Amino acid sequence: MAVKMVKPITAGRRNMSQVIRTGVLTESKPLKSLTWGMKRRSGRNSRGVITAQHRGGGAKRRMRLVDLKQTKLGIPGLVKSIEYDPGRSVYIALISFLDGEKNYILAPVDLKVGDRVVYNVNTKIKTGNRLMLKNIPSGAWIHSIEMQPGRGGQLVRSAGGAATLLGFDKGYAQVRLPSGEVRLIPEICFASIGTLSNPDHNNVKIGMAGRKRHMGRRPIVRGKAKNPVDHPHGGGEGGSPIGLKHPKTPTGKPTKGYKTRKKRKPHWYVIKPRTKKRRK
Q1: Rounded Cα distance, 96 and 24, in Å
Q2: Is residue 235 a part of any domain in this protein?
Q3: Helix (H, G, I), strand (E, B) or coil at 214
Q4: Of 59, 75, 77, 206, which has the fewest CB atoms closer than 10 Å, so is most exposed?
């Protein structure tokens, strides 16, 4: 895969780029039984209150039902297609099992149509296979990692992501996540082998605001440019500063450096905190 720069025929397309998917994805329609039309919630909860800012609009989507638990142990499956998923950055693979059942999984790099994948407690260390952490050798790249046995993949699920298995200690596996955090995970949890597909996703430049609106993202407005009823920073005359002891979120909670981790949440699972700077 590669990133292609778009010809600068307009100002909006001057700095635009996109991922070339030719030859990577299978030219086939998604399996209808594993898709559904997503209802637009526009960042609102069940009471209609906005809990996620700057959401709304966007193109229509048919979401894919991706199997993150992958509980069909010991039954080999065949990769039928590699497809695009509008609800996530990574590509997905359609797996057909010997018993006739079909499921979508997160597709790792180098997984091709016709490859065979197996989920089991212990199986061959091969891209796409899924097994328990205690049966994976140290140094292997893994993704879709469980945090609790039977919960399904929760960690490392975005494009180009891969965690490194460092070792084992007293029934726990030490895993280095893409953020740089090293944490303990029960060794009886499952994980998949390989690095996730579409690694060039982070190199794409949106280029223009309209493209972002197609993704369902609305414009971001400064808090101090709003009214007091809409934001704690709002109000005042002209370009008034924040005027408070510390910056706050729209719901009034401290932000910009304020630690939000719950005090009663166990910290001993985290051996080393994350070191990678988060993108703004």
Answers
A1: 19
A2: no
A3: helix
A4: 59
